[in-house]
Specification:
alpha/beta, two-stranded antiparallel ribbon, Rossmann fold
Length: 198
């Protein structure tokens, strides 16, 4: 019995250690601010409200726009399909938003099929090959970036960088990182788990 309890303690402590290690990696990636010159900026989708970007999507688009205007990339790839009950995709809403801010259609590539992060990144991997992009930079909220990079690696995307949209409220940021750690664990052990956009 004593041996069993010792073994159980070791297992539990190992699980806690690995979980803390994962949360630490998610936190470290949430601070990422790469500004390397790349072929394309990839914006991960978020919800849209009747043709207008939600605050989360607007923040990601504005961040990508800032990077684009700083000559970080020549193209912007927008991801996000049509959510249940919607009539327009998140990526098309993003395209309209960027068009109004002076970005030409020829500089925007949209992916309208993905309804989850994994589905969107699968399409991004196809776009990367089709356009012969050597490297790309992901834009999303910071808590999201660790999993994005993991999925990108699983799709053999090669050189990828990231630039985080900051969440200023520490309590909200911690909650989102904690939630993301659970989603990432599910992705690691159940790759086909439908983990949603965020």
């Amino acid at each position: 019995m004593r041996t069993f309890l010792k073994l159980l303690s070791v297992v539990i402590l190992s699980i806690i250690f690995l979980w803390v290690f994962l949360i630490s990696n998610i936190y470290i990636n949430s601070k990422s601010q790469d500004r390397k010159s790349v072929d394309a900026i990839v914006v991960l989708g978020a919800s849209q409200w009747n043709g207008r970007p939600s605050p989360a999507l607007k923040a990601r688009l504005d961040h990508a726009l800032e990077l684009y205007k700083a000559n970080v990339a020549n193209y912007i790839v927008l991801t996000g399909g049509i959510a249940k009950g919607d009539t327009i995709s998140e990526s098309r809403v993003g395209k309209n938003y960027l068009n109004k801010r002076g970005i030409a259609n020829s500089k925007i590539i949209i992916e309208e099929d993905g309804k989850t992060t994994k589905e969107s990144l699968k399409k991004v991997s196809e776009i990367k090959k089709r356009y012969n992009f050597k490297n790309i930079l992901f834009v999303s909220h910071g808590y999201h970036l660790y999993r994005i990079k993991k999925i990108a690696a699983d799709y053999d995307m090669g050189n990828v960088y990231s630039s985080a949209v900051e969440i200023k409220d520490p309590e909200r940021k911690f909650k989102l990182i904690f939630k993301e750690s659970l989603i990432t664990i599910l992705y690691i052990f159940i790759p086909d788990y439908k983990s949603g956009k965020d």
